[in-house]
Every structure is written in structure tokens, then in C-alpha cells.
Amino acid sequence: MADLNDQLAKLKDEILNGDPETRHGYEPQLAQLIEDMQQQGMAVPSDIRCLHEELVSEAIEAQFDNMPV
Q1: Which of 30, 6, 2 is nearest to 18 (CA)?
Q2: What's the CA gap between 58 and 18, in Å, rounded?
Q3: Residues 37 and 8 sit within 8 Å (Cβ to Cβ)
Q4: Are the C-beta atoms of residues 51 and 12 closer than 8 Å to each other?
Q5: Is 45 helix (H, G, I), strand (E, B) or coil?
Q6: Which of 20, 21, 42, 48 fits a disulfide with 37 by CB distance 3.0 to 4.6 angstroms?
Q7: Pick from 33, 60, 61: nearest CA to 49
Q8: Cβ pair 44, 34 in contact under 8 A
Q9: Burial status of residue 53 (CB atoms within 10 A of its CB: 0-12, 13-18, 19 or more)
Q10: Strand, coil or helix: 42
Q11: How big is the CA angle at 36 (ends 30 and 2), to the nearest 5 degrees?
Q12: Cα separation of 8 and 37, whole Å?
């Protein structure tokens, strides 16, 4: 369990300190860590859930940024 917490802390740091334009690329990794934590019966911190929701929203917006008008 400590390993998942360590991975989560490292990933959170990478996301928060990464390029705001491309940080949505971390969403699949964060989603997998959240799923792994839930499968092991660990509580997922609310700030991590919020961060995941932000990344999902950013990923959706990024898809529309490249669409021709």
C-alpha cells in the first residue's frame, strides 16, 4: 500500500509541476492508480479525485482545440 501512496505522491507532483498545456496526458496513469487503490480497499483522497476530474476536463477541451471550425 505504501508503494501506491508513493507512486501517487510522485505522479501528483509531476502533474502539478508539469506543463499546463500537456498535463492532461497524465490522466490515464492517474486513473489507473485510483483504480488500483480502490481495488486494494484504500481510500482515494478528495484532492486526487478533484485533480483527476480536472485532467479529464482538460483532455476533453484539448480534443476540441484541434477541431477545424
Answers
A1: 30
A2: 14
A3: yes
A4: yes
A5: coil
A6: 42
A7: 33
A8: yes
A9: exposed
A10: coil
A11: 95
A12: 10
Provide φ and ψ at 6, rounded to 5°: -65, -45
Cell numbers at residue 11, please? 505522479
The pLDDT of residue 67: 64
Packing angle of the helix pair 46-65, 27-39 (nearest 10 deg): 150
Confidence of residue 39 (pLDDT cuts 50, 70, 90): very high
Q: What global pTM score does this model have? A: 0.87
What is the 3 state secondary structure string of 23-58?
A: HHHHHHHHHHHHHHHHHCCCCCCHHHHHHHHHHHHH
Which amino acid type is present at position 47?
D
Average pLDDT, the chain: 92
Identity at 49, one-letter amino acid code: R
For residues 52 and 30, give the distance between their C-alpha atoms in angstroms, rounded to a whole number. Answer: 7
Q: Which residue is associated with the grid cell 482545440? A: 65
